[in-house]
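Researcher: Please translate sequence to structure tokens.
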Amino acid sequence: MSNKTLRISLVYTTCRVVMLLMVGNLCIATNSAQAAFHLMQIEQIIGGVNGDTTAQAIQLRMRSGGQSVLSSSAIRAYDSAGATPVLLDDPTTSVANSALGSRVLIATPNFTNYTDIPVVADFIMDPIPTSYLAAGQVRFTNNNGSTIYWSLSWGGAGFTGSTTGNTANDANGIFGPPVDIALPSTTLQALLFTGAASAQSTTNLADYVLTAGAATFINNAGTSFTLVAPEPPSADFDGDGDIDGNDFLKWQRGESPNPFTSADLELWQEQYDTTPPLSAILVPEPASLTLGVWAMASLAILVARRRSAVCLL
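Model: Translation complete:
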């Protein structure tokens, strides 16, 4: 073999080795990225709170340790036919806690108005469209949505789309049939996955139930947020336990919760001359108060007359 041929052969062999190493490194990097987020459940989801569909949340749970690189994932909602995807969230960062069972809380900005303490969500989501709440689907996928790692469908027979996905979290890759109810949105309840932290999916219908009462969501730091019904608005703008003309004066002066708004004025008109339940217990009714005053006055007059009679004796 000539020196020239030998040099060509060596160059060719070196190039092949370099290419194989590059492909190998790419495969390792791809597998590492996949292993960093894909073993995940959609543990809990709510489509609205007390009818407010701008208050929504999704809670993920890690099926294995080390699943913290959420920047490689995305969550999308689909309509009743499994079509018309809407991107809910495409995280750009990782989360700090990556132990088995760690949660990731994704919520709309308005969700915090319905929790016992202000929500600290790990990521902010766009809401699931209201037209998807009766029957629809949410998928946890890679960035471009080509690999479905977890799929949750609801609406029973009303959902006609595909329920298949990757086998990483479901042994046969079939997440259906769907849950046989609409996505909860009118109470404080949520859909909850009943399996253990390490559990795979069997079917959405078998795996999910409504929470027994008000749902509690948990963020990656382990902080819990329980849903509560907000206090009904009151026109007792001066805080004296009743709604009367003084509260109207407060509104006129711009001292109501939403100064000079028609909403506060309409609230006062609706509640005028009413008394909140607690103050109805603690504060006497005007008629009772009047009777009490007259009774005390009569007693005082009677005592005074008796004293006068004693003095005359």
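Researcher: Any highlights?
Model: The longest strand covers residues 40-46.
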